[in-house]
Amino acid sequence: MEIYVDTANIEHIKHSAELGFITGVTTNPSLLAKEDPSVDVKKRILEIHELIGGHLSVEVISTKKDGMLREADEILKWFPEATIKIPIIPEGLGACRELARQDVPVNVTLIFSPTQAIAANNAGAAYVSVFMGRLDDVSTSSAEVIEDVCEIWDVQDFESQIIAASIRNPMHMLDAARAGADIATVPYNVIMQSLKHPLTDSGLNQFLADYDKMQAEKQKRMSM
Ligand code: G3P
Hints:
Mean pLDDT: 97
Largest sheet: 8 strands, parallel, barrel
Oligomer: single chain
Strand content: 15-25%
Order of helices and strands: EHEHHEHEHEHEHHEHEHH
Structural class: alpha/beta
Radius of gyration: 21 Å
Bound molecules: SN-glycerol-3-phosphate
Number of helices: 11
Distance between the termini: 56 Å
Low-confidence stretches: none
Shape: elongated
């Protein structure tokens, strides 16, 4: 399972790029607004593209097919490798089909059920983004939904990639990986949380303390 970072924060993206295992970034209007409501979206997106190099999903804000297609054209002029993120609404599916015809990768977002995911796949989506945290928020098991979607993809041999999104904690990452999601797009703080283990910290402290002990011993012997 690949890991993308789900943020528009430049410092977090810089650090994520240095981590060596993050292969993409997903953004949405809420994440951009959270960083700076007056942000110049084009400038910020290009800055992110420069930093990460890999997958970058950029979301449209139109709710009409023509508007979505116009926005997609504009984003592709910013950088041609963009993945266009489109909400799973009927107009969005039409726009997805049109972009897929032009070989533009589309990430269909705001998916909460297997039937929505199937529709997105059949409309030509390259990625289907299943929102986990928001399902749990309304007392629906996100683990079961992501499992269902992954099972259907296996049985049907669908080619689009499943992105587990709206990840709130490392357990969501595990549920997504266990189910067989291709990608999890994860907030920076959850990525960092998922790397921590108290035994790693105490183990490293012990290694360093023992190394210092050896060095001190060597110094002592040399000064004798
Ligand atoms: O990937 C989608 C994500 O940004 C939404 O997350 O936590 O607002 O449900 P959340």
